[in-house]
């Protein structure tokens, strides 16, 4: 009986047990925050590339044989410019779509896909898609 009371009152090692139980949760939480910040970096890279592609799409390339005196950059050149300016984490997949043309404007679209990894388990696959409409020379 005395031994049971002595063991109940003895709190040596309790901190080590609490530490061992809480550290995996805290490390996973911190790693998860890092993983989510990678999505913000990818989103920033997409927005930058879309902005550069939009600026390039509105350029006037001089051409004296045209009635307007300007040529619009080709879709291939716009996609190449977006790929050149794109940045973000390398462990995901960026997809730069060919611009779609409607009456008077082009729609530029870039998407990013990544499977989240939370150290102790694999999370869902996240897809970020951004588009920008650019009015072009007719």
What does this structure look like?
By secondary structure, the protein is an alpha+beta fold. It has one domain. It is 46% helix and 28% strand. It has three helices and six strands; from the N terminus they run H-H-E-E-H-E-E-E-E. The strands form two sheets. Strands 3, 4, 5 and 6 form a four-stranded antiparallel beta sheet that branches. Strand 1 and strand 2 form a beta hairpin. Helix 2 packs antiparallel against helix 3. The radius of gyration is 27 Å and the shape is rod-shaped. The model has no long low-confidence stretch (mean pLDDT 88).
Write the layout of secondary structure elements.
Blueprint: H1 2-9, H2 14-57, E1 61-62, E2 70-71, H3 75-85, E3 93-96, E4 100-102, E5 105-117, E6 122-135
Antiparallel strand pairs: 1-2, 3-5, 4-5, 5-6
Helix pairs in contact: 2-3
Please summarize what this structure is.
By secondary structure, the protein is an alpha+beta fold. Helices cover 46% and strands 28% of the residues. Helix 2 packs antiparallel against helix 3.
């Amino acid at each position: 009986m005395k031994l049971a009371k002595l063991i109940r009152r003895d709190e040596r090692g309790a901190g080590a047990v609490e530490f061992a139980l809480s550290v995996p949760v805290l490390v996973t939480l911190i790693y998860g925050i890092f993983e989510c910040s990678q999505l913000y970096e990818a989103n920033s890279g997409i927005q930058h590339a879309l902005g550069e592609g939009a600026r390039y799409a509105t350029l006037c390339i001089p051409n004296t044989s045209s009635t307007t005196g300007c040529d619009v950059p080709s879709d291939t050149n716009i996609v190449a410019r977006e790929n050149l300016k794109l940045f973000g984490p390398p462990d995901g997949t960026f997809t730069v779509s060919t611009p779609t043309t409607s009456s008077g404007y082009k729609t530029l679209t870039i998407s990013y896909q990544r499977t989240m990894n939370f150290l102790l388990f694999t999370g869902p696959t996240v897809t970020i898609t951004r588009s920008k409409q650019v009015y072009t020379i007719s």
